[in-house]
Amino acid sequence: MEVILLQDVDGLGTAGDIVVVKPGYARNYLTPRGLALRASKRNLAVAEEKKRVSIARTERLNKVNLELANSLMKVEITIEMQVGEEEKLFGSVTTQDIHKALSEKGIEIDRHIIGLDEPIKALGVYDVPIKVSEELQPRIKLYVIKA
Q1: For 1-143, where are the alpha helices, taking DSSP H only?
Q2: pLDDT tens-digit profile of 13-57?
């Protein structure tokens, strides 16, 4: 049975694609959830429009992400921390600290896209990845110095 996907479905296709699925899958899962329509002439026009809108949205989002990635590649952040014996930090540098430093520089991002695997507990220079999108992961330079 041919159906037109109205939304992206993992393992099946993206919005606007025409795919062949088993009738039970279309009748019991895709159609009731509003994920697909039966392929007909009228519905094909709807699918083409959705596909066009989806492509335009993706291009717009990619452009914004690319601009953000380019601005992030130039960013260097310095965080001053108090240290104890043997140059060990009191506390650690976390994604919240990095997010706050970026906000002070005028760069507003979601702190969950900061790719810090574990908190930084030593002085030094670090490259911290920022996951702007699946393809774009620019790195910012982070300097952790003594206060």
Answers
A1: 23-25, 41-73, 95-104
A2: 888 888 999 999 999 999 999 999 898 888 888 778 877 888 898
What pTM value is reported for the model?
0.68
Q: Which residues contact 73 (CB under 8 A, 6 or more apart)?
A: 138, 139, 140
Query: How many angstroms separate the CA atoms of 80 and 147, rounded?
Result: 5
Specify the DSSP class assigned to residue 87. Answer: G
Compute the Cα dihedral for 83, 86, 87, 88 and give only its sign: negative
CA 121/CA 92 separation, integer angstroms: 5
Kindly report the number of other CB atoms within 10 A of residue 6's CB atom: 19
